[in-house]
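Q: I'm writing up a methods section and want to include an example of the input and output format. Could you take the sequence below and give the corresponding predicted structure tokens, formatted cleanly so I can copy it straight into the document?
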Amino acid sequence: EMADTRNQADQMVYQVEKTLNDNADKIAEDVQLEVREAIEEAKEALDKGAIEAIKSATERMERASHRMAEQIYNYDFYDAFHSIFQLFKSFINECSFINSSNFFII
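A: Here is the clean output for your methods example:
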């Protein structure tokens, strides 16, 4: 059980750290801090080798990573929506037969 717990924690540390580093511009500073603290707690627990501490730190890191993933998803959704809106706006501006003042921006 100890080997499996350690392996899972090691893999999660790597994955969460990589996701954080790759997407830092999409994540609020307070969430970044929460994730970094959870990663450090997991690394310390792995160094000490206490299985309950590793499990607890892994659970904390999982909760923090869910908040991080939510922010990345929301950022990507907004970014995609914004891009589509800009394309639509460009299309409307190109169409001389459409009066763009008839469109409302929310």
